[in-house]
Structures are given as structure tokens and as C-alpha cells.
Amino acid sequence: MLDLSPFRDDKFDAKRWINAACKSRHPQDGVDKHLSDLEMKLQMASEEIASTLEDQSSAALLRLPRATRDIVRLRDDAVSLRSAVSSILLKLNKAEGSSAESIAALAKVDIVKQRMEAAYKTLQDAAGLTQLSSTVEDVFSSGNLPRAADTLANMRQCLAAVGEVAEFASVRKQLQVLEDRLDSMVQPRLTDALTNRRVDVAQDLRGILIRIGRFKSLELQYTKVHLKPIRKFWEDFEMKQRTSKPGNERNDLERPSGNSETQSTTRIVPFSSWLPSFYDELLLYLEQEWKWCMLAFPDDYKSLIPKLLIETMAAIGASFVSRINLATGDVIPETRALSKGLLDILSGDMPKGIKVQTKHLEALIELHNITGNFAKNVQHLFSEANLRVLMDTLKSVYLPYESFKQKYGKIERLLLSGEISAVDLRGAVSRGIGAQGIELSETVRRMEESIPQVILLLDAAIERCISLTGGSEADELIHALDDLMLQYISVLQETLKSLRAVCGVDFTGEGSRKDAGSDRKEATQTARKLESMSNEEEWSIVQGALQILTVADCLSSRSSVFEASLRATLARLGTNLSVAVFGSSLDQNQSHILNDGGSGEAALGGRAAFDVAAIRLIDSPEKARKLFNLLDQLKDPRFHALPHASQRVAAFADTVNELVYDVLISKVRQRLNDLSRMPIWSSVEEPSAFSLPTFSSYPQPYVTSVGEYLLTLPQQLEPLAEGISGSGDVGNEEAQFFATEWMLKVAEGASALFMEQLRGIQYVTEPGAQQLSVDIEYLSNVLSALSMPIPPVLATFHTCFSTPKDQLKDLLKSDSSEQLDLPTANLVCRMRRISLD
Q1: In sequence order, which residues have a C-beta less than 8 Å from that of residue 158 and are 6 or more positions away?
Q2: pLDDT (mean) for 787-792
Q3: Is the per-residue pLDDT at 705 higher than 60?
Q4: Residue 428 has pLDDT above 90, yes or no
């Protein structure tokens, strides 16, 4: 058999197939014979294929007429089926029309039947209502309260059935009066049942009130009965105040009793010591009521006990706020003597000098923490209650502190402002000539020491905000911190202004400049003071001024670290408050979160501080959104938690740099002050019989003093630079850069002052020009020793003054003039009276 499968392949290659067939022949067969056999097999296979194809084609031709007849028959059957379906559809449409009319008629009949039934029932209810109205007095007279409740319930049901019919308006008013009457009959019995713990009677009376729709009466009566013993717990504090005698409480505060005749004193029990006992008694009472109500009112105890606590806090709320206020004032003798507290200080109704102190706020936080522990116990006791009920209950527990929290920003501002105002930046008294360096050093030391003190005050404010408000007043805290940082930096700025006079540079700086005459007068007076100083005093002032740089560096680093810490704290608050902020964005219905009684613990968070914020924010959507937007800004790295303070810190650093520069350049300024008016520049050569030099070959004292000062300055900068930059290789590089930067700044200033004085010279003779050349060369050598490039103007001055007068004109016309500053060269020509025409 011949395998014909390779011929089906689209990529069939005849040569490859023949070669493969030759390789598969028997070794004993010849190639010719094998190819002949292969050809014969292929021919036989092709003949067989052709025969089969011919047979199948013939059979297909024979089947075509039959298939055509079948197709025609099927087409005729489809046409007849279509006409049959059309007739059926026509019959269905006719049947549907008649059925719809029948159904509509039946619906009208059914409506009429329902109305007739309703009218029959209404007539029955009306008849029953008339009968009930006539017999209800007999029921009340019998004293059977359950039957009376059933009667009133039936009357209300009948009134609801008859609707707003004018004939029964009097019955409706009668029902209202009867319900009030039954309610008033139940109340004494309910009070007795609640007082004597009679479970069965209380349940029956509850059923009566529920029957007539007066559940609110049950709540009010239950609250009224149990509010009296709780108020006794609260009033126990004042009873102890009246009955306490000296020596009863060892650690209590003493206060005059007010009886001027006996002059006796009463030991006052601190409210913070008494409040835990009140909370313990209140919690024990609530636990007992919770257990009893579970038996008496199993369907209502989850709302009755929280309602009792809410009404209790509302009843004692005003007194609670007053006691908190007085308790905050008792920690300070001044406010305790006046029987005033924190709210009185905020209102301004206090003598001058009494301010908010840290102890005031610490006392408030202590009381708040005590309340927080009570709130945790309440949350555990009411864990089965609906979340909305639980939230309202906890809110009422913290309600006495709300007035303090709303004013937290003002409290913190007043507190921090007083503490910052108490920081002593001028520790040394004003000293005279010879001791100003000590005054400067002492003041700078106190400025530097005050920075960490102020940062600690701000850190304490953050802790107080979290402890008292749980972070819900973070926006007010940030504004307060920003404002107080501005206040502190303003104090530093004022101290810097006063140090300018100590350093003898109060006549410099753009902010203190007046007219030119006033500047010259102040400069002359300061120059005289500086001349009277010893060299050691001058360097002590320089060292003190350089120490001010450490103040700016400390302020910048400490403020940046504090701001980073504040951002981290706010970020943690953002995470902790996310549930509260999300809950507050659910609008007034509070959506599913507030209605899910099983998720109360999760929504309130695991910490008391977070509970406080959640309670406030969930019911304050706008405040929550505002706080969330603030916390969301922390994600932006460009966000400054203290934006104004950050700008003022940079401005303070600039002011410090300006002051230090003025101090470092002051000696140069003083030495060069009268340079332009020195008579030596216009001196005339005196006739002599001997050939003597007409000028000194040495620089004059004024410029040597400046040069020695500049060369000594790096030694003064080095220790300070190392102290600012720190230690290590990087620190050494930073120290070198710091010293070089300031050295170049002073050197540039000295050269600028020198050139300014040179421009002010009016007339220069030949001896004066030669002397100026020597002085300029000396200063240029000093600048070169400090690795500072010589300014082109100063080089021009040196070249023009060192050139003889008769050669200067040619110098300006030569090619070398391209290296000169032409305006300066022309100025020198005018000084030396050389005409360039």
C-alpha cells in the first residue's frame, strides 16, 4: 500500500518525497526497479481515485432531481404554515380584546365590593366607637387600668378607621383627655413599683402605657424616680465642704471659711479628689439599675439606663461646669483667694496680673482624665446599646468640658504667651565701657538657652491638646503655636536691636539709617567709644557677636525638628481620627455606622483620647471636614505646619547675619572712617638740601590695623565654626566652608569700604600718591593672603597711584589700559590734576 498523506500537505515537495522513497528501498533492490515499482503504484492509485470520483459524481447527479423536488415541497409547506399561524394570531387578538373588557369590568366590581366592605367596617367601627365612648366612664370607674387601656386603644383604632369625620371630633378630644387621665392614674403606681422594685407591677404598668402610646411617660417617670438619689450623690460634695473640719483631710487645701467672727478655717475637699468617688457611686447605681431593668423591662433597658445618665448629666451640667471652673482656680493661690477659675480668666473679669498658668490647664486635664475613666466604664456597661444611644450618652458625660474645649485655642494662647513673656533674655544688666563684652556674652547665652525652653513649652502644648481634646482642636493648636512662635521670635528680634547698641553698631543697617548728618554724628560717637576700648574688649565683642550665629543656627535646627515632630504627630492624629472623620461625613442620618449596634467599639476606637475626638467630631461634620482637610495637607512635602513662623525664622537668621557682619566690619569701618580726609594725600614736598624720600615706604597705621584685624579674624571664626558644624570629616569641611564664607564676606566689605574712601579723596599730590600706592599694595597683599581675588577697581587704584604723574597719561593711552577700570582711572587723573584733553 502507498501512503498518500504527504500529498495533502500544502508545502509538499516532490523531490524531497522521491529522495525519501529511494532511501526507504530494500538494499538488494536496484534504484531503477524501485522507481518503476513506485511509478506503477502511483499510477494505480491515481486510476483508483479517478474511478471513485467518477462513480460518486454520477450518483450525485442522479440525486439532484429528487433534492429539488424536496425543496419545492418544503417551501409550499412553509407558506401554508405561515397562513395558518396568521389566522391563529388574528383569533388571539380578538379573544384578548374581549377578555380585557371583561377583566376591567370585574376590577370595577371588585373595587365596589372593597368599598362596600370598608364602609361596612367603618360603620361597625363608628357604632363601636359610639358604644365605647358611652361606656368608657364606667370602665374608669371600675378602676381596672388594663381594661381602660384596652378600651382607649380600641377607641384610637376606631378613630383611625373613621378618619377625619367632624361628628367624631369631640370623641377625639375626649380620647386625649382620657389618655392623660389614665397616664396620671398610672404614674403614682409606677413610681411606687419602681421605688419598691416590684417587677411584675412595673411590667403591667409598662404594658398599659405602651397600649396607649405613652412610652415617653415611662422614660420620664423612670428618670424622675432615679434622678433624686443620684442628685444626692452630687450634692454630697457640698455637704462635705460644710461638715469638714480641720485635720479631717491631711492633704486637703485650706481656705478661709468666711466667718469673720470665729476666724475659723475649713479644710476644703478638692473636687478632683471627690469626683472619682462620685463616679464610682454613680457607676454602681447604674449597674444595679441595668440588672434590674433587664428583668423588669427586657425590651427597654438598653435605652432607659442611658437616658437616665443623659438626663442626670443635663441636670447637674451647669453645676458641674462651675465646679470644674473653681477646681482649676484652686490650684493657684491668687485665683483660689478670689474663688475664680479658668473661665473667669478667659472672660477678663479678673484683676490685672492674674494670668492663665500651666497648673490651671493641668488641673482641667486631670479632671478630664477622671471623666475619661468613667466614660470607659460606661462604654463597657452600655456595650449592648445602640451605637447612636451610646454616642449620645458619652457625649453627655463629656459635655461639662465642652465650654473649655471650645475655648482651648484661646487658653493655649494666653498660657504660652505668659510663659514666653517670662523668658529672661537679658540676663545681664547694662554695663559701661570695658564690660560690654560680658553683657553681650551673657545675653547671647540666655538667648541660646531660651530656644530649647520654648520648644519644650510648645511640645507640652501638643501633649495638652491631645490629652484634653484628643486632637479635635489640632487646627486651633497649630494657629496658637504659629502665633506664639512669632511672638517669641519678635522678642529675639527686639533683643537683637538692643544688642546693636551694646556692640557699637546701632548706626548701621538699613532699618536704622537716618539722614547722612545723623549717621556721621553717630559714627563719630561710636568711633570714640571704640577707640576708648581695649583690644581685649573689642575681641570679646567680636566673639560675643559670633556666638549670635549659634543662636540663629540653634533656632533654625530646633524649629525645623519641632515642625517635623509636629507633622508626625498630626499624621498619627489623622490616622487615629480617620474613623471619626469618616463618621462625621455621613451627614445627619449617620448612615449605617451609627445604626449598627455591634460596631460601637470599633467606631469609637481603642483609646480614650480618640474617643473624646470621635464624640465631638461625629456630631460636628463641618469641624471634622475642616480638620480632615488640614491633616490631608500633611501629605504635601511643601506644607508647613507653622507657615508664618518658618518665614520669621529665616528673617531672624538674616537679621543675625546682618548684625554679625556689622560687628565684624565695625573695626574696619572705624579705622577707615577718616581716610578720605587725611591731610597726607595733599601734602606738598618740602625743599631739602638732601635727597630724601618724600613718602614713607611703610603702610600707614590705619591700613596695618585693618590688615592685622583681617588676618586675625580666621582664628576667631574657627572655634565657632566647629561648634556649629559638629564633628567628623563632614563637620570639618562645613567648618572650613563656614569660616571661609564669613572671612570672604568681611574681606569684601573691607575692600569695598576702602575703595569708597579712596573715591572720596579730593586732591592727591605726588607724595600722597606714592603713600596711597604703598597702602593699597599692603591691603592687596592681605587680601591675597586670605585667598581673596583683588577687585579690579582696587588694582586700578594701585596702578594709577604707583605710576608717576607724567607717565599716567601715556599709560591710559597704551594697550595696558585695557586691564584698567577706566572710570576709576579717570577719577585718579582728576585727583592728581591730570588733564586728559
Answers
A1: 125, 126, 128, 129, 132
A2: 90
A3: yes
A4: no
Mean pLDDT over 394-403 rounds to 92
Q: What is the 3-state secondary structure (H, E, C) of 4-39?
A: CHHHHCCCCCHHHHHHHHHHCCCCCCCHHHHHHHHH
Give CA–CA dist 152/413, Å, rounded: 63
Q: 265: which strand partners?
A: 256
The closest of 519, 522, 374, 506 to 436, measured between CA atoms, is: 506
Cell numbers at 220, concatenated: 420620664
Per DSSP bridges, beta strands 253-256 and 265-268 are antiparallel
Residue pair 367/324 in contact by the 8 Å Cβ criterion: yes
pTM to 2 decimals? Answer: 0.69
Domains of the chain, by residue range, sit at 214-248+268-406, 409-648, 673-685+693-831
Of residues 369, 247, 385, 397, the one with CA closest to residue 309 = 397
Separation of alpha carbons 596 and 593, rounded Å: 5
Indicate left, alpha or beta for 692 from its phi (over 0: left) and psi (-120 to 50: alpha). Answer: beta
Residue 76 phi, psi (nearest 5): -65, -40
* 310: three-class secondary structure by DSSP: helix
d(CA 430, CA 642): 35
Long-range contacts of 748-751 (CB under 8 A, 24+ apart): 748/788, 749/661, 749/665, 749/668, 750/665, 750/668, 750/672, 750/706, 750/710, 750/779, 751/779, 751/783, 751/788, 751/791, 751/794
Average pLDDT over residues 105-114: 80
| Contact in structure between 382 and 304 (CB atoms under 8 Å) | no
Q: For residue 522, which of 511, 503, 506 has the smallest C-alpha distance?
A: 506
Question: Could you tell me how far CA 279 lies from the centroid of its own chain?
Answer: 34
Q: Is the dihedral of CA 160, 166, 171, 177 positive or negative?
A: positive
What backbone phi and psi angles, to 5 degrees, belong to 695? -150, 165
Q: Which three cell numbers stand for residue 467?
A: 490629652
Q: Which of 833, 803, 796 is nearest to 684 (CA)?
A: 833
Contacts 24+ apart (CB under 8 A), 74-79: none
Cell matching residue 315: 441636670
